Amino acid sequence: MATILHRIKAFLYENLLTTAVRTHVDASDIVINNPSELMVIIPDLESGLYKLEVTTQFSAGKTLLQEPRSVIFDKILTVS
Question: What residue stretches are annotated with the DUF4469 domain (predicted)?
Answer without folding.
Answer: 19-70
